Amino acid sequence: MIFYKNIGISYFDKDDYISQTKFFHKYLSKARELNNIKETGTALSYIASCHRELEDYDKAFAYAQEAYSILKNTDNKNAIGGALAIYGSYYFDKKVDYDSSYYWKKKVYNLYEETGYLPLLSGATLDIIEIFVYFHEFDSARKYLELSKERVHALGFPEHIMTYNTYQAIIYLKDRRIVEAKQLLTEAMELARQSDVKEDDYNIHKYLSLILAAEGASEDALKTIDSAFREYSADVNVSKAQALTRAQNGF
Fold first, then answer.
1. How far is 47 from 30, CA to CA, in rounded Å?
2. What are the extents of the domains in the chain?
3. CATH number corresponding to 1-116
4. Within a 10 A sphere around the Cβ of 133, how many other Cβ atoms?
């Protein structure tokens, strides 16, 4: 059971959610054979996360609900937070309910503050910032950005630093601090290229194009936004669609 769990986790850095899903289902099967409630709920939470990454939001939410119904009777706060994070992501991804998205993401944040596990707490902090930035609640975003800065640099995860830089740059843009915003986005772009995360790459280029336009480099601004859009469109429309189809056929 633990072997299958760890193999699934090992595919995280490769963004191979198909292989993750395959081994997490094996993990789930063994957990059920052993009647291990905690591991069963954790496996369901992991599978929910895979479907969310594959943009199958309804199936992700269904797995998360099943996971939480099991995990709420355990003391595994990290796994409970993982399931509830999908609740918050569901309302945000579907763009149907800001209040519900914030409600569940804040519950996750509070759980991870209790456990003190920095990788999960850092991720939960960035999730809350994403909500505030998206809905233009910039004063609230600033509060959590201060917390996030210390956490992401203590953790040292490139993807967390990249995401923090992007959100902080957006606030700098709003405050007309163009030089600081450009510096953060340039650093974030280099990290995005290393990790090959197309969605973050697109967001970085989108805001960088605004800076280039503000500097009067309109031709470079257009090239930047067009390049990013082509990359992101190809990633979403081809790779993820194919991956989602394979996952559904397999399970």
1. 14
2. 1-116, 128-251
3. 1.25.40.10
4. 20
Question: Are 185 and 211 contacting, i.e. CB atoms less than 8 angstroms apart?
Answer: yes
pTM of the model: 0.82
For 86-129, the pLDDT digits (tens) are 999 999 888 777 889 999 999 999 999 999 999 999 999 999 99
- How far apart are alpha carbons 106 and 174 in whole angstroms? 25
Q: Map tokens 């937070």 to a residue.
A: 81
Among the listed residues 121, 173, 169, 182, the one whose alpha carbon sits nearest the alpha carbon of residue 148: 121
Distance between CA atoms of residues 68 and 248, nearest Å:
22
What confidence tier does 53 reach under pLDDT thresholds 50, 70, 90?
confident
CA–CA gap between residue 99 and residue 92 (Å, rounded): 9
CATH top class, domain 128-251: mainly alpha
